[in-house]
Design a protein that fits this description.
This protein has 340 residues and is of the alpha/beta class. It has a single domain (2-333), classed as Rossmann fold, CATH 3.40.50. Helix content is 43%, strand content 16%. It is built from 12 helices and 13 strands. The strands form 4 sheets. The chain has a 7-stranded parallel β-sheet, with helices on both faces. The protein has a two-stranded parallel sheet with strand order 7-10. The longest helix has 21 residues, at 94-114. The radius of gyration is 19 Å and the shape is globular. It starts with a strand and ends in a 6-residue tail after the last helix. Bound molecules: nicotinamide-adenine-dinucleotide and thymidine-5'-diphosphate. Nicotinamide-adenine-dinucleotide (NAD) binds next to helix 1, helix 4 and strand 5.
């Protein structure tokens, strides 16, 4: 396989590049990434000289560069992680999300079509389905009902990918996963934000009442699912990927505080995210029964592993937190009112 990984310098993308080098060392892996604030080549330092790994600094909206890269490496397979990925940022800068997530995806798809790749896999999210009440699960046939500019941009991209299957007969797949956690997770998202803030004895902001539920998936389990879909996914199919791990935000925050031996006084309830989805929960039966995927990690094991990673890789997150990210942090939390 000669694989283009778009967005391979981000959280999930870099974990996936590591996965491919480990399990498919015979394949060529080209990491094509714009290196936005979320892209970080430090994530790939240990494999940067690996003979089958290549990095290209580029935007998925840049057709000319993409065409060159497809030709240069004779790309036959594409997996697209490249996106603006943070819901809170999408609320303040929705246009950025349309540009990268919608227009970028269409451009990448179009180049992939013109170069006649054998497979194009779009990495999407369960957030395209909207929010659940107390019961029920998202299946692949749940209607799309995105609520944030982020999820609306991801749903739009999914529909474009679907259209390239229906109209041009491209061999596409879409995977929709729940919230990932694990190494190299940028510390603006709940779990790494809370771990690193707790380590610095800083306040731990919990939006609203903290009762919102997410279905957590360890990133290595997600990478194994993507690998399976790339190799065995049936043309045109969508696969939901979830870890059977529904947790309330407040319980996760308390677990991290306990594990690190910190005080619960650090926890601060702040004003809620606008349009905050209440509950996500994935039914992964299709990928389990049709492709034989099963998550290998329990939440209890993998959250400990993740916390240990942030203890071991303090240099990694301290560098991020001392830079440009702090400007965003001040903007995001400086104006939030504490409600408790
Ligand atoms: P991330 O923000 O950590 O990484 C995104 C990467 O894409 C970065 O390296 C960034 O530089 C790159 N990028 C952004 N715009 C680009 C562009 N125009 N051209 C090229 N590269 C660009 O995101 P992540 O958490 O690793 O998520 C990866 C994918 O998985 C995204 O598509 C996201 O929507 C999806 N997803 C993530 C989660 C999660 O829990 N993190 C859950 C469901 C789905
Ligand atoms: P996040 O990690 O941003 O992922 P997503 O919004 O894609 O699910 O948020 C996970 C949950 O944690 C979500 O319900 C919002 C909440 N949250 C907080 O309570 N405080 C925070 O500082 C952040 C970033 C998120």
């Amino acid at each position: 396989m000669r694989l283009l990984v778009a967005g391979g310098a981000g959280f999930i993308g870099s974990n996936f590049v590591h996965h491919m080098i480990k399990f498919h060392p015979e394949d060529t892996v080209v990491n094509y990434d714009l290196l936005t604030y979320a892209g970080n080549l430090e994530n790939l330092k240990d494999i940067e000289d690996h003979p089958t790994y290549h990095f290209v600094h580029g935007d998925i909206r840049n057709r000319e560069l993409l065409e060159y890269v497809f030709d240069q490496f004779d790309i036959d397979t594409v997996v697209n992680f490249a996106a603006e990925s943070h819901v809170d940022r999408s609320i303040t800068e929705p246009d950025l999300f349309v540009k990268s997530n919608v227009l970028g995806t269409q451009n990448l798809l179009d180049v992939a079509k013109s170069k006649q790749v054998t497979k194009y896999l779009q990495i999407s999210t369960d957030e395209v389905y909207g929010s659940l009440g107390a019961d029920g699960f998202f299946t692949e046939t749940t209607p799309l009902a995105p609520n944030s500019p982020y999820s609306a941009s991801k749903a739009s991209a999914d529909l474009m990918v679907r259209a390239y299957y229906e109209t041009y007969g491209m061999n596409i797949n879409i995977t929709r996963c729940s919230n990932n956690y694990g190494p190299y997770h940028f510390p603006e998202k709940l779990i790494p934000l809370v771990i690193t803030n707790a380590l610095e004895d800083k306040e731990l902001p919990v939006y609203g009442d903290g009762q919102n539920i997410r279905d957590w998936l360890y990133v290595e389990d997600h990478c194994a699912a993507i690998d399976l879909v790339l190799h065995k996914g049936k043309p045109g199919e969508v696969y939901n990927v979830g870890g059977h791990n529904e947790k309330r935000n407040i319980d996760i925050v308390e677990l991290i505080v306990d594990t690190l031996g910190k005080s619960c006084d650090l926890i601060k309830h702040v004003s809620d995210r606008p349009g905050h989805d209440r509950r996500y929960a994935i039914d992964p039966t299709k990928i389990e029964t049709e492709l034989g995927w099963k998550p290998q990690y329990t939440f209890e094991t993998a959250i400990k592993k993740t916390i240990q990673w942030y203890l071991d890789y303090e240099d990694w997150w301290r560098k991020i937190k001392s830079g440009e990210y702090m400007d965003y942090y001040k903007k995001q939390y400086g104006s939030k009112s504490y409600v408790k």
